[in-house]
Amino acid sequence: MSHGHGHGGRGVSRSAAGALRWRLQLAFGMVAMFFVVELVVGLTSGSLALISDAGHMAADVVALGAALVATRIATRKDVTGRRTFGSYRAEVFASGLAVLLMLGVAVYICIEAIGRIGSETEVASGPMLVVGALGLVVNLISIALLRAGASESLNVKGAYLEVLADTLGSVGVIAAAILVSSTGQQWWDTVVALAIALFVAVRAVLLGREVLAVLGQHAPAGMHPDEAEQALSEISGVVEVHDLHVWTLTSGMNVATAHLVTAPARAGHASADTGTILAQAAEVMRERFGIEHATLQIEPAGSSACAQTTW
């Protein structure tokens, strides 16, 4: 009266991030190399905007590296027999790490900016401008690589948002260099650094909400459980739907469970065909709500199958 799908051998084809692994690898290589350049120039030029952007670039390196590790774990076949849903959640945890890194960078920038209040720090605007322009090019290439997968994988989306935020950071560095050079006012460097910190923090909070929604097993975005319950109850032969649960396992993989109560057989009438009901219910969940994996249980009216459930 129910059906299930194995998860062991389908991980590679079902994981959206796995198919985009080469994009993550290329972006990781470029960002990692440029991080070293930006950090060295930032320290030698005395630019807080450049150092803050380098710190964000470091977060990019860690986030992209974690994303790569997560995609490897997510696509790995389970050999323990205990991970019945596979290891797809590794991608969500990687996104959570990206959130923490982004918040950490934002806090660091704010602390450094406060420490510079009232001090006269000389900033070399020339190196800032050159490195900011190079960083912009690197980030734009990384955005082009990751944008295609940002809508398919929360893991890739975390890396994409990291790079997107750093792109604006590069623009900020360029703006700070031009302002410092044209006005002679060093505090422009600090102002731009704080603006970068604010943007990073906002993006981190938005991504964090998505991560918590998945880990909290909320209903998938754009779907309301009441609508699914109503759709299932409209199937011929179904008189009640209960214990409906819908949640996101990882990006692009929504799952559901439900108990369907069927009408009792009447004199002169055959009882509802359970196979037909299950097929129709599975089609409703797949076609109307995008849920390919729905575990559905048939219960005849008056059954006490759920009577002993205590939660």
Automatic annotation (TrEMBL):
Write down the superkingdom of origin. Answer: Bacteria
Chain segments annotated as transmembrane: 24-48, 54-71, 92-114, 126-146, 158-180, 186-206
Query: Pfam families of this UniProt entry?
Result: Cation_efflux, ZT_dimer
Coiled-coil annotation: which residues?
Answer: none
User: Cross-referenced InterPro entries, in alphabetical order?
Assistant: Cation_efflux, Cation_efflux_CTD, Cation_efflux_CTD_sf, Cation_efflux_TM, Cation_efflux_TMD_sf, CDF/SLC30A
Q: Which residues form the Cation efflux protein transmembrane domain?
A: 25-215
Record's subcellular location = Membrane
Classify the main location: membrane
Keywords, alphabetical: Ion transport, Membrane, Transmembrane, Transmembrane helix, Transport
Q: How does it sit in the membrane?
A: Multi-pass membrane protein
Where is the Cation efflux protein cytoplasmic domain positioned along the sequence?
Answer: 226-300
Which residue positions does the secretion signal occupy?
Answer: none
Q: Which PANTHER family match?
A: CATION EFFLUX PROTEIN/ ZINC TRANSPORTER (PTHR11562), RE54080P-RELATED (PTHR11562:SF17)
Instruction: Give the protein family.
Output: Belongs to the cation diffusion facilitator (CDF) transporter (TC 2.A.4) family. SLC30A subfamily.
Q: Could you identify this protein by its name? A: Cation diffusion facilitator family transporter
Q: Which organism is it from?
A: Terrabacter ginsenosidimutans
